[in-house]
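Deliverable D4.2, example record:
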Amino acid sequence: MHTVAVLAYQGMSVFETGIVTEVFGLPRPEFDFPWYGLTICAETPGPVRLVGGATLHTEHGLDAFAAADTLIVPGVPDVRADPSPGLVAALRQAHRRGARVMSICSGAFALAGAGLLDGRRATTHWRYAESLRRRHPDVLVDADVLYIDLGDVLTSAGSAAGLDLCLHVIRRDHGPKAANMVARRLVVQPHRDGGQAQFIEAPMPDDPADDRLARSMEWALGNLATPISVEVLARRAHMSERTYLRHFARATGTTPIRWLIGQRVHASLALLETTGTPIEEVAAAVGFESPVTFRHHFAQAMRTSPSAYRRAFHTVG
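Output generated by the structure prediction step:
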């Protein structure tokens, strides 16, 4: 059994720790392979004060934390303070023996303080990114992504991005079918790519271009099977292509073509789940030029093939 240890800390919110508990701690009798064994640890065994006045109590300290196969630091009490010598020693000891070390949100400050991120890419919540750069100039901070997987060390942005990272780990350990099944139990999207933007300053700007952009996107969703170019979308929004691209990026954090690909992949899921339509026809029905193109983009988005996804989730017959 692969062991996972998550570190509780004084004054913590339970959300990030709850993510880890939900993903790795609940029994999964639907799988025919051993699931993870989860331990909640603290720097000092005993009571841990939580936001809201509650208290968590754990008997497990840093020895148990350092002994796990995967160590997760879901946050730190103060991003302006250095991690304790005991925590630094535990993280370094675990990393030296080949354990996987992960952080969620401000937990990256603990990994950086232990020297595990020197000269390497890492992410954290966007609001802490500049502070992480200042405190640890040897870390290559990327605040524009949801999570980064370096193999031995993994970091994620704030809150829900930690859930994306945990599902990514399941996908890495047990494959896309297991990750998708856990995602369904959680009623969340099965996969968000780690490189996806974690924050968009103005999701929908309040100006006249907003309605025109929204109408063009709504039209595209109703016409996915037809060829759609940036020129077509811009014309429907009564904008030049350059202006359309600028407004689209500001509103969505991506490009029209990448957005279209994502919508087409998403539209294909229902066909794969509820019909026996051949893959070639599914590809055409959602607007991909060829089955090869469909399979390529589907694999990039879902980390599995359309056929494998159908085998996992088909509900007809």
